[in-house]
């Protein structure tokens, strides 16, 4: 045999061996005999996608399992990653991680130390599933199948930050909320970021990009057959379409592309921008077809309440809705009605076409157009409605969609391409307005002669009116505070402070003396001439607290004396200034401790339990032990002040109401309070009683135990608020998970669990089954008393999934005597 033949015989087997190795490392299938290690990849049958370990540019030591476009990248840095498995649990190169199929057909990512970094568990009972395989498809889907072909798990059901054609982003299942896209933390950091995209849990009808728990951009609103504002594009070679599908049991988002289209995807990037991308083979880069938000006008509520962004012109701009005018020089601060709505007075509806409907709507299902319009017409608090007929769309379930709004209209815009009619409620022109229009016609003709005279007369009238109002105001306050009143007081001597003394005490309201601020104004620390330290509440001229609330707080606090109520020392009226002087409490308010990670350890369980019982006794005094029943209506942590011994004192009585001796219930046309603490009957119907304070106390109690706000980052995906979260833990027997970690190791758990039990009793939907504060105090102070089982609080936890509950709440507010206007504080 010659030398050349010998050489061929030596190298030919080596060539075959290397060829086999390469083919093994680039198969599209993973089996339990062949785990995947760093350096190995799976490649789909036509070479479209690859799956393997990758390291982001920011870290060469961290390893992630991901899926990327195989034929679009020449290096690790140019990869387009579309899915990541272990995004919050990266492996390290030194730990020799492997992706393998276990004997029980679980897909497991583990390292040499035996740690499981990520796993897709086999939850499908399939006979003989030990021979499962995982295949990477040309769609980008990684599918784990049993030997008989049953799908055990697939990556398309668990998207990370990207949606591929054919992928279904499950938004709602009939029994639970489903998925969200969650952006990367940074351009080279695959871990969970701050921005997410998914269904709005409060409406179930719209897609939202969230920044934490705050809406960042509303993408679209579902009308039963398609989405309003959905991203789409058309061109000579491809069509891209995005829609929401309702099967009856579930909602899911899907987008498809026409045959022959270039690679296309939807991605939520780390800046919160949702982009529809298409591959441009000429430039070898991704082209942006559409994106949201685009510019500042795409951000949530960019034009403020009652304004809208007009996209019908080349240059988008904020405008006021018809019948509204800007607050200030332009509409950037929002808009207000030119003529206020008055219940029982004339009003009408105007149709605004091409509108993206506002946020914060209430859904009424299966109404005709006439019924939808009638629902809004009969409810004095209804400000607008929108209607969609679904009977001809072939959708499952509902035949119509009626949306109504009962407050300000937030986050809407107008477009020529898509949108729907928004029916806006406006007041009929008043006789005064008609006369004003006539004056506008006549006035220019006479302006040259009458203008100087009119200016002088107006100035004189305003000066006299202002002077008269101030004198009447002061006389009224003096007369009110020094004459018998509904509390039965006689000639109460109340100290009026001199304005100059307060200015001196606070160093002319110096910022260095400011203790806090809120919707009412600012609070300053001051020292009177005798050395006594005080807190001065300076009511803002723009605040909602006017003369009625000011008088209310003065009269109540001067006559109510209890160790758990803040003590009022005096007041002052000076020109436009309204000032209240309280005892100074050095430890400020409760919220500055329980919600601050750096300070919450100051309040151990004994201190928190003392605060809970103190607030309960204070409410009991207001409801029963004072001369008349008093409803606080704004109980929350920021209104609980703490003295030097951390004893609680209830403050802020500006919204309190006094009940007569035999009065059990009252209604209001102006609902004021703080969202999350207001009871269901108060929010929807304006009805309040002592049970309204019981509800607020229940929320406060749960916040003290958990250290979580009633609306918290923790609840953005699974639970809308603290009440829903608490109920789920209680039902599952895991109530101890609610307890704040700062004191859980040094507290009697039976006492804490009893407080959680009492809190759930207080936040029940039906006010008739909530306990009175007498019972609450008794339950808190007597451990041997058996407590009734709480009922599930449905209204604020699953109210948008309970259509009949919505309908009853809506119809119960149709009576004109119980109309409310929501004013969150």
Automatic annotation (TrEMBL):
<keyword id="KW-0732">Signal</keyword>
<dbReference type="InterPro" id="IPR024171">
    <property type="entry name" value="SRK-like_kinase"/>
</dbReference>
<keyword id="KW-1003">Cell membrane</keyword>
<dbReference type="InterPro" id="IPR001245">
    <property type="entry name" value="Ser-Thr/Tyr_kinase_cat_dom"/>
</dbReference>
<keyword id="KW-0472">Membrane</keyword>
<keyword id="KW-0723">Serine/threonine-protein kinase</keyword>
<keyword id="KW-0245">EGF-like domain</keyword>
<keyword id="KW-0325">Glycoprotein</keyword>
<dbReference type="Pfam" id="PF00954">
    <property type="entry name" value="S_locus_glycop"/>
</dbReference>
<feature type="domain" description="Apple">
    <location>
        <begin position="343"/>
        <end position="427"/>
    </location>
</feature>
<feature type="domain" description="Bulb-type lectin">
    <location>
        <begin position="27"/>
        <end position="157"/>
    </location>
</feature>
<dbReference type="InterPro" id="IPR011009">
    <property type="entry name" value="Kinase-like_dom_sf"/>
</dbReference>
<feature type="signal peptide">
    <location>
        <begin position="1"/>
        <end position="26"/>
    </location>
</feature>
<dbReference type="InterPro" id="IPR003609">
    <property type="entry name" value="Pan_app"/>
</dbReference>
<dbReference type="InterPro" id="IPR000719">
    <property type="entry name" value="Prot_kinase_dom"/>
</dbReference>
<feature type="domain" description="Protein kinase">
    <location>
        <begin position="509"/>
        <end position="786"/>
    </location>
</feature>
<feature type="binding site">
    <location>
        <position position="537"/>
    </location>
    <ligand>
        <name>ATP</name>
    </ligand>
</feature>
<dbReference type="InterPro" id="IPR036426">
    <property type="entry name" value="Bulb-type_lectin_dom_sf"/>
</dbReference>
<dbReference type="GO" id="GO:0048544">
    <property type="term" value="P:recognition of pollen"/>
</dbReference>
<keyword id="KW-1015">Disulfide bond</keyword>
<dbReference type="GO" id="GO:0004674">
    <property type="term" value="F:protein serine/threonine kinase activity"/>
</dbReference>
<dbReference type="GO" id="GO:0051707">
    <property type="term" value="P:response to other organism"/>
</dbReference>
<dbReference type="InterPro" id="IPR017441">
    <property type="entry name" value="Protein_kinase_ATP_BS"/>
</dbReference>
<keyword id="KW-0418">Kinase</keyword>
<dbReference type="GO" id="GO:0005524">
    <property type="term" value="F:ATP binding"/>
</dbReference>
<dbReference type="InterPro" id="IPR008271">
    <property type="entry name" value="Ser/Thr_kinase_AS"/>
</dbReference>
<dbReference type="InterPro" id="IPR000858">
    <property type="entry name" value="S_locus_glycoprot_dom"/>
</dbReference>
<keyword id="KW-0808">Transferase</keyword>
<dbReference type="GO" id="GO:0005886">
    <property type="term" value="C:plasma membrane"/>
</dbReference>
<dbReference type="Pfam" id="PF08276">
    <property type="entry name" value="PAN_2"/>
</dbReference>
<keyword id="KW-0067">ATP-binding</keyword>
<keyword id="KW-0547">Nucleotide-binding</keyword>
<dbReference type="Pfam" id="PF07714">
    <property type="entry name" value="PK_Tyr_Ser-Thr"/>
</dbReference>
<dbReference type="InterPro" id="IPR001480">
    <property type="entry name" value="Bulb-type_lectin_dom"/>
</dbReference>
<dbReference type="Pfam" id="PF01453">
    <property type="entry name" value="B_lectin"/>
</dbReference>
<keyword id="KW-0675">Receptor</keyword>
<protein>
    <recommendedName>
        <fullName>non-specific serine/threonine protein kinase</fullName>
        <ecNumber>2.7.11.1</ecNumber>
    </recommendedName>
</protein>
């Amino acid at each position: 045999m010659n030398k050349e033949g010998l050489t061929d015989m030596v190298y030919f087997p080596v060539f075959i061996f290397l060829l086999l190795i390469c083919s093994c490392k680039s198969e599209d299938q993973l089996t339990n005999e062949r785990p995947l290690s760093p350096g190995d990849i799976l490649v789909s049958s036509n070479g479209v996608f690859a799956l393997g370990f990758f390291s982001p540019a920011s870290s060469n030591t961290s390893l992630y399992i991901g899926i990327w476009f195989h034929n679009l990248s020449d290096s690790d840095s140019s990869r387009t990653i579309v899915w990541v498995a272990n995004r919050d649990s990266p492996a390290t190169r030194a730990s020799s991680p492997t992706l393998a199929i276990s004997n029980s057909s679980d897909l497991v990512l583990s390292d040499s130390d035996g740690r499981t970094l990520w796993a897709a568990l086999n939850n499908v009972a399939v006979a003989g599933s030990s021979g499962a395989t995982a295949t990477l498809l040309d769609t980008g889907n990684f599918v784990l199948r049993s030997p008989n072909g049953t799908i055990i798990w697939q990556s398309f059901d668990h998207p990370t930050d990207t949606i591929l054609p054919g992928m279904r982003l499950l938004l709602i299942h009939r029994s639970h909320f489903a998925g969200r896209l969650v952006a990367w933390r940074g351009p080279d950091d695959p871990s969970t970021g701050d921005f997410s995209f998914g269904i709005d849990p409060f409406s179930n009808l719209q897609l939202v990009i969230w920044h934490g728990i705050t809406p960042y951009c509303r993408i679209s609103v579902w009308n039963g057959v398609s989405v309003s504002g959905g991203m789409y594009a058309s061109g000579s070679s491809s069509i891209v379409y995005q829609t929401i599908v309702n099967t009856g049991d579930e909602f899911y988002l899907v987008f498809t592309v026409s045959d022959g289209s270039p690679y296309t995807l939807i991605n939520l990037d780390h800046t919160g921008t949702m982009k529809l991308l298409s591959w441009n083979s000429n430039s070898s880069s991704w082209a942006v077809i559409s994106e949201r938000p685009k510019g500042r006008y795409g951000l949530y509520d960019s034009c403020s309440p009652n304004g809208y962004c007009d996209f019908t012109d080349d240059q988008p701009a904020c405008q006021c809705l018809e019948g509204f005018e800007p607050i200030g020089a332009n509409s950037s601060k929002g808009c207000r009605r030119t003529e206020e709505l008055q219940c029982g007075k004339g009003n009408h509806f105007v149709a605004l076409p091409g509108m993206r409907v506002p946020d914060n709507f209430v859904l009424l299902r299966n109404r005709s157009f006439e019924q939808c319009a009638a629902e809004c017409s009969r409810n004095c608090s209804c400000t607008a409605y929108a209607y969609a007929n679904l009977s001809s769309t072939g959708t499952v379930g509902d035949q119509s969609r009626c949306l109504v709004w009962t407050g300000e209209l937030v986050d809407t815009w107008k477009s020529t391409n898509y949108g729907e009619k928004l029916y806006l409620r406006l007041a009929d022109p008043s006789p005064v307005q008609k006369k004003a229009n006539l004056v506008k016609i006549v006035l220019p003709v006479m302006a040259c002669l009458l203008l100087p005279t009119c200016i002088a007369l107006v100035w004189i009238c305003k000066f006299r009116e202002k002077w008269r109002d101030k004198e009447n105001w002061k006389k009224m306050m003096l007369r009110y505070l020094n004459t018998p009143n509904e509390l039965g007081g006689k000639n109460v001597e109340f100290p009026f402070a001199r304005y100059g003394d307060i200015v001196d005490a606070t160093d002319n309201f110096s910022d260095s003396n400011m203790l806090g601020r809120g919707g009412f104004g600012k609070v300053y620390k001051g020292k009177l001439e005798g050395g006594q330290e005080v807190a001065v509440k300076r009511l803002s001229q723009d605040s909602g607290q006017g003369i009625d609330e000011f008088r209310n707080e003065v009269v109540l606090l001067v006559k109510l004396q209890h160790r758990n109520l803040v003590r009022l020392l005096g007041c002052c009226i000076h020109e436009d200034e309204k000032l209240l002087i309280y005892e100074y409490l050095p430890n400020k308010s409760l919220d500055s401790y329980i919600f601050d990670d750096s300070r919450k350890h100051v309040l151990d369980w004994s201190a928190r339990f003392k605060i809970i019982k103190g607030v309960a006794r204070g409410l009991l005094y207001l409801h029963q032990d004072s001369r008349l029943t008093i409803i606080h209506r704004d109980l929350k942590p920021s209104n609980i002040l703490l003295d030097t011994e951390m004893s609680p004192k209830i403050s802020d009585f500006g919204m309190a109401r006094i009940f007569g001796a035999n009065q059990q219930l009252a209604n209001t046309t102006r609902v004021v309070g703080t969202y999350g603490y207001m009871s269901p009957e108060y929010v929807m119907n304006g009805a309040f009683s002592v049970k309204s304070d019981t509800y607020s106390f229940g929320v406060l109690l749960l916040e003290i135990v958990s250290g979580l706000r009633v609306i918290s980052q923790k609840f953005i995906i699974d639970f809308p608020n603290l009440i829903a979260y608490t109920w789920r833990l209680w039902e599952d027997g895991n109530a101890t998970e609610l307890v704040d970690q700062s004191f859980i190791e040094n507290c009697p758990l039976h006492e804490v669990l009893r407080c959680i039990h009492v809190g759930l009793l207080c936040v029940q939907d039906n006010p008739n089954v909530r306990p009175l504060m007498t019972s609450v105090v008794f339950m808190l102070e007597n451990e041997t008393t058996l407590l009734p089982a709480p009922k599930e609080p449905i209204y604020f936890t699953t109210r948008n999934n309970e259509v009949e509950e919505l309908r009853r709440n809506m119809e119960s507010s149709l009576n004109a005597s119980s109309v409310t206007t929501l004013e969150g504080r």
